[in-house]
Sequence to fold (192 residues):
Amino acid sequence: MSEVRPRRSDATRAAILRAARERFAADGYERATIRAIAADAAIDPSMVMRYYGSKERLFAAAAEFDLRLPDLSGVAPHQVATVLIGHFLDRWEGDETLMALLRAGVTNPAAGERMREIFAAQLRPVVERLTSDESEVRAGLVASQILGIALCRYILKLPPVAAMERAVIIAWISPAVHQYLLGPRPVAPMPA
Fold:
């Protein structure tokens, strides 16, 4: 019985994606070039274009990202926000691909769309398990807190936020995320 060998095109694709992830993480979307990615993968730039067609499509493929959300089924409702925020702080601090996606998402429409897709596809089902009441809105509000803290802490390095200890950030943000996840729907004030 012969062993199945991976096709050469699969190896080339994998090399391109590996190089693209590293280059986007190091340089950001705008400064990363197809030529630099091809050089990192030790291939001709035309091969990158052959497999992916454009820088935007390459970025979207390289940004396949699993948020690896924790299983919250055994977590007490009052602890869910704390667990989620801690999880995301760990992810932001330990994954350059997610950071590159955030940087690019701020300035590039395709990257922004990819970030929205990732959060909608992966965060909304978690929220839906907790509540059926406006889960899409609630997931969007949770994402606004998570993305906002990441932008201010890791990209903009806003001094008070960047300097905060992990436990302090969690303590400040948990009440808002808890409200978004499990609190009652707020009543809008009546116009005067």
In short: The chain has two domains: 9-62, 77-182. The chain is about 75% helix and 0% strand.
